[in-house]
Structures are given as C-alpha cells and as structure tokens.
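The instructor's notes for this session suggest beginning with a concrete chain rather than abstract definitions. Hand out the sequence below and ask the class to guess, before any prediction is shown, which regions might be ordered.
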Amino acid sequence: MNGVGMKFTELSDHDVRPGLLTEWRPRLGPSALHWIPDSRPPSYVQEAHVRSSLVSERAGRRSPSWLATAFELPGELDTNALKTALLAWIDRHEALRSGLFCTEGKMARITLNPGSVALHGKVAGDFAHGAELAGYLEDLFDAETDPLAWPSYVFATVTHADSTTLYLGLDHSNVDGYSISLIAHEIRELYAAAVAGGAAELAEVGSYVDFASLEREDAVRVHSDHETVCRWREFVSSNGGELPGFPAPVGADDPAAVTKQSGGFDWLLDVAEAKAFDTACRKSGGNFQAGVLACLAIAGHEDTGRREFRALAPFHTRNQARWAHSLGWYVGLAPLDFRVTSGGFHHVMRDAAAAAEQARPMAAVPFARVTELLGVPLDPRFVVSYMDLRHAPGAKQWPEWKAAALRSRTPHADEVYLWVNRSFEGVYLASRYPGTELGRTAVPRYVERVRRIMRQVAAKGSYAVAGLAAHTAS
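After discussion, reveal the predicted structure:
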C-alpha cells in the first residue's frame, strides 16, 4: 500500500529521507524565573516508569523508552515560525513543562510556567544516506529522552529540496500512542498560523498533570478487596501466579536473559476488507475490536491447541472531554480472558466482546496500584492493543504529510506486544517480540494466521475454527 500515514515502526524500518539535520533542544528561557515546586503527584504509571528507570540506571543497563513521530512541513522551512510553533506547543501541554525527581525514595514534581522555555538549534550535519541518518536519529532520541532529566524530549528537522521533515522524540512518561497521533495536526496548525502571523484555531486542552493528581485521589481509595483487584488476583492465580505470555514459546533458553527484540509490520486488511470485516462483526452484535480479539484467539488455538485466550489489553483513561486531545500517558492495563468455542468466529467474538466490556472499567485502576495491593511484582509479557486512528485530527492527511509513529528498541526476554491499528488505508498489525529463533518463527507465523482468518471473515462473513475437536488442552 502506497502513501500510507502513521505506520508504527522502528526508525530502522522507516523511510528516512536524507538531508541537512538540525537538532532543536528545549532550554530554560531568559525570562524564566525558577522551577516551581509542584504538589501534584505523578500518575501511577509515570512513577512506576521513573522508578524502573532509576533501578536500571543504577544497574548500568538503562534502556530507551521513547515514542516519536515524523511528518513533513511543506516548502522552505521558516525557522522563526517553527520555533514559535514548537514553543506554543510546549506551552499548550503542561506535561512538557513538568519534571519528576526522586529524593530519599520520594517522588516530587517541579513545573515551569508557560513562556519559560526557549529553543536552541544546532546543525548536526548533512546526511546523504537515509540509513545513516536513521541511526543518528535513533542515537539522538536514546540519549535525549531520559525520564530522569528535563527535558525528556527533543526535536530535529531534516531539510530537503522541497520540504522539511520534523522529528519529535519523547520519553514514554510524556505520551501514549494516541498522543503521538495528535502531534502532526497540532504542530502543522501552529506552524501555519505562525507563518501567517495569526493564531491557530485549536481547542483548549486539559493538563495531564491535573489528570495525574485526580487519578491518585481515586486510586488511593482502592484497596485489596476492591472488585478490580479481586479480578486481577483471580486472573494471576489462574495463570500460575504470573501474567500470561504469548501462546507459543518465544524466549531464550535462559529466562533471565535480556534479549534484543525484533519487530514486524504487516497489513491485515485493505479498506474494503476492513469495511466488510466490520459489517460481519456488527451483524452478530459485536464490534471491530471484539472481532480482532476473536481472530487473535482463534489463531492462537489453531497454532497451539490452547482453548483459553489470555492477554493484557491497554484501554485509554481519557474519561473527560478536556483530556481528549491532551498530551500524556492516558492508558491503563486490564486482563482479557475468554475461551475459543466450537460455534466458530461469531461465538468467539461475542465472548471476546464480553471480556473486553468487563476489562475496560478495570483499566481505570492503575496497574501499578494493582501490583502494589497484590504484593507481587508482575511483568506484562503478552499485550494486545487495538486503536481506530481514523478519528484522530488530520488522519486523512497523514499520507500527504508522510506522518509516521516510531518507537525505541526495547530488549526483553519474552515480551510480545501486538498493536492492531485501523486507519483510512486499512488495518495493520505492528509487532515487537524477542529476536530469538523461536520468536522470529512463532510470531510472524501467528500474524500470518491472524491475517488469513480476518480476510476470510471479511470475504465470507464467518470462520469455522479449525481442529477444535482434536484439541482438549487449555
């Protein structure tokens, strides 16, 4: 598929256009007074992320954890307008003007007022080859997105003859996947307004720092007998005291090994097939997400014989209108657990829909709070995400803007992440999994099976689960 926008890949798999690279770093501006002590606490996921980064740094094994986006600005770059746009964007999202630090085991926040940040540009060199530039950008993001420092984000521009590509890399503590999808539209609007000498027509957004504080207030009222915590306890217990892994073995022989991960990007459905798949799901009282989950479960069963589908799913926590377009980490995890039944795709889909409906409100209780109450460390090992990106501002223009979402490399022994995203160009699956011989075999084979099942549902409106009678293991 050509002209695709917002693919989610690593930089090494992105089409990086060569050109003159300039790095842009936020700094305290000359009019800034001081960092202001801020009593608002971090969100649970922010604190867990920062504490994990502290442990890794002290052990000498810090691992990058950034998300990034890239998109084109048309014509010759107006650097003054770019500075104006980026600084307005930083002022717009308070999370970008706020930092966390840990003293004597306690987490504290400091925040800057709007207008306190300046932007410093530095030419890094003229790159003739895209692969070399991709490697440089990856190193830049690895170094400049440290969650233990401010700023934990950096910008870069690559100038071409006809346009400029803008890259933004941010540590995960600043953003979630949906936040990344908002950036291109916002900054292009701010940039166009700055070029024209006017103001961008963007609605006001709430502050993630405020959200974090409200989330804490709610989370501290959750105790070990809370319904969500009890469900998590049952889920973990039914899986042998740990979180579920990928249906097939993918890890190294040594479970303590830190394994370099591989990644994939695969189209599952084109536009027409996506519409037909959606219709098939809704005719049976389901929805697209439930259909995707059903196909994942059926693929796992046909591959391994497992009747039970167990995984974690991220759900957004943007529970008020003011958070809809706010930059932040508005994501909670919840457990999915349902069976593959003999009634075929539609029966499995209905069970998947019920499981997702039960899981969704559980994501409002932060995963770190759950593990705190359970009293055991839990490491997510198999996570499946679905997002319909067609509702994001500017989504129809992403191919024209050459917009992309990017992620850092993350080593892990047996972690598998699957991101299924629907866009105006179709449905794709991005994957991250251990780069072991088992992982490089099992995950692509599984993805291909998922694609085959989804395409049959789109073509015929149903799917009969293969080999169900032959397998009794769960």
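Then share the key points. Residues 469-474 have pLDDT under 50 and may be disordered. Residues 47 and 76 are 41 Å apart (CA to CA).
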